[in-house]
Amino acid sequence: MSSTPYVITQPQARELLAQVDVPQILRKLFRDLAAGQAVQPAQQLVEFPQGAGDFINYLGVLAEDGVYGVKTSPYIVREQGPLVTAWTLLMSMQTGQPLLLCDAGELTTARTAATTAVAVDALAPLKATRLAIIGSGKVAQAHLHYVKNLRDWQSISLYSPSLSQDAETANLLKSIEPSLTLADSREAAIAGADVIMLCTSSAGPVIDPSDLSNPALITSISTNAPRAHEVPPQSLNGMQVFCDYRLTTPGSAGEMLIAGEQHGWDKNTIVGDLPDLLSNKVQRPDYNRHVFFRSIGLGLEDIALANAIYRLQH
After folding, report:
1. Which end of the chain is more exposed for a tag (fewer CB within 10 A), N or C?
2. Domains in the chain, please, with CATH?
């Protein structure tokens, strides 16, 4: 007996995601991981021959919900620039049948930003007042949406080099948060910030923590370019480092790999991950130095969101 999975396109996914509490779904997922009710293997990178690109598979099991799944995301090299897509397949652990095939573009954006929001809520000083964002694309916009109400922000500033030529995106950002300040430079955006969210597709550093005047929480997501990183790898040695999942992130995050190979950094110095933080195994950090949070994106995050929107329909 076979069944055809329910197919959800990107516009449908966007509409359905607006109906679920994405950060809350992710909080439950990380608590399930801490309790042994979920499984998150390392992501799997497969290269195409002749340097034509690669694809990454993100896998995960949600035992309590009776589903497992895989998100597969190709990075296809083309003359006009790389093409990146992603699809998530949700499977039943009871019947072994496919339940859902979903364009994962919206899932990826939402889970990336909401994971950062969960981390900011768990890690940022309770009295943090100044938020800075580097980047202005869809992922940066989603970060702003999920984080804007997490603290009593007195200022939210954003810098992106492309914004001076892009009034439409600038207006969209302002519509998400009317009090947003669009900074003229990276330095102006991050000056005095308590929380700095790096939301870029840069393959190399966009800020150097040693340039900051006060200890801050710095969050980083990075992109699928090989060994991509948004802070200098050597800076990890001077920061309190957290991540989304300590069993998998150090094997994929570019700055962690480079810091381990070239700068004597040890992944065992990671203070905690989101399962630790959300199950109260690790306390909120003191800010005697910078705090760095790195997420690589977990298959489980996509699968949890795919499951949530599937349940809306069934």
Report:
1. N
2. 6-107+300-313 (3.30.1780.10), 125-298 (3.40.50.720)
